[in-house]
Amino acid sequence: MKGKFIVLEGLDGAGLSTQAALLAHHLKDSGFPVLLTKEPTNGLIGGLSKAALRGEFSTSPKSLQLLFCADRAHHLEKDIEPALARGKMVVCDRYLFSTLAYGYASKVNYKWLRYINLSFRLPDIGIFIDVNSSTSIVRISDQEESLELFEEKEKLNQVRQAYLHISKEFHLKKVDGNRDIDTVSSNINKIIEKAI
Ligand SMILES: Nc1ncnc2c1ncn2[C@@H]1O[C@H](COP(=O)(O)OP(=O)(O)O)[C@@H](O)[C@H]1O
Ligand SMILES: [Mg+2]
Prior knowledge:
This protein is of the alpha/beta class.
């Protein structure tokens, strides 16, 4: 059996990492082999994108998105495709929809963003964990990454609007992420169980 490629997307603080870990745990408990992974990756190119986000060197919105795509190409080839081929369920915390949403909100041409992601496989199941910008800000305020780009409320609203459009275009399942962790988690488990 080929594995399924599951992607979680949303604003910072939506609970992506929390929910990806819970979903991976749930799938393992149900007897599936699982790869839990994320973008940007912990590899060299992922590290470069994260350094750019922290403002450690100056980069343009376009070159930043190309870095995310280079990281993605490597991630797919080295980790995701081999895991799927071995029948694993791949749970990925952020993927190409982050490039589309954050890139668009930083005024990069949407068609170009679509174009540079064209060769990357789409997930079997994409989930958009939707939180409002206030929830996002409260949850990230005590996190280290709070100084990264994109975290101002206005920007978060723009990213959220972009995600809402992208969710329709790519048929991502929208989950209300403003609720407590367990409620969101069982909502996600139900969606996955129905889809696999
Ligand atoms: N549904 C939730 N309700 C309350 N707090 C949450 C919820 N989901 C996550 N958190 C908390 O918010 C913070 C950010 O969560 P995290 O999963 O790292 O978000 P993300 O990966 O989307 O940025 C963490 O402190 C986490 O414990
Ligand atoms: Mg996270």
